[in-house]
Specification:
By secondary structure, the protein is an alpha/beta fold. It is built from eight helices and eight strands. The chain has helices at residues 4-17, 31-43, 47-51, 57-69, 74-85, 88-95, 115-129, 158-175, and strands at 21-26, 105-109, 134-140, 179-180, 203-209, 213-221, 229-234, 239-240. The longest helix is centred in the C-terminal third of the chain and has 18 residues, at 158-175.
Length: 247
Amino acid sequence: GSGKSIITNNIATYQQEQGKSVIKFSIEMNIRQELQRLCSIATGVPHVKIRYKELSVMEWDKVARWWASRYVDGFDVYEEVYLKTKDFLKFHMALIQKPLALPVIDVVHTPELSVAKFKAEVLKRLNKYGEDKVGLIVVDYLNKMKNSDYGYNNKFEWTEQIQVSDKLKTFAEEINIPILSPFQTKADGSVKFSKDILVPADAAFNINAGADFVELENIKMRHMEEIGFVSTMDWTTLKCGPDNGIK
C-alpha cells in the first residue's frame, strides 16, 4: 500500500520518454487498470476521473491523444475518427487494429507467472522490439512469482522466493537488461518472509510514502555508496517527481 506499482509505472514512463521500451508483467492488476494509471501519469488527468470516466471535454482530448500515441498512425485515427465523432469506443476499436508504436510500455497481465513463462514472454518481445530497444523489464511483484510450472510450489514460502530472485538476477545478466521487481515488507520495513531474497539484487529500496512525497530509502547498493532520496508525489495524477518522472 505504499505505492510500489505506482513507482514502477513512473520509472517505466520515464524510460519510455527517453526512447526505450518497457515490458511490464502485472500479476495482480489487469491491463485496463495498468493503462489507466499510466495514462494519468503521462497526461496529468486525475486517475479517479479516468477510472470512472468523469472527464471534461479537454481531459477526454488529452486521454485520446495519449491513447493515439501508443499506436502506429494513431494520430491519423485520432483526426479521422475521434475528432469527427467524439466516440471514444469507436476510436479505440479503430486504434487496436494498428500495431503498437515504439517505444512502448507493453503490459503483460499474467495472474499465474512462473520463471519459465516469464522468460518465454520476455524473449518473444525482445525478438519483436529488439534487445537494444528495451530499457527495462518490470515484474510486479516478486513475492507472487512462481519458481516452476510443475510440482509443489508455494509462492509465499521464503525458499521459493529466494530461487525466483536468484533466477531473475541471472536472466537479467544474460539479456543485459535491468529487471525491476517490488517486494513486500513488514511494518518495521524489513523484508517479508526472508531478507535473503535481496542477496541477488544489485540495488534495493524501501518506500516510505507521505501526503505529497515518497522517500526511497536505500537498503542495498552493490559496488556503490548507498544513497536514498525523496521525491515529490502527486497522488491525484500518480505522478512522481517534479520533472519527467524518477531520475
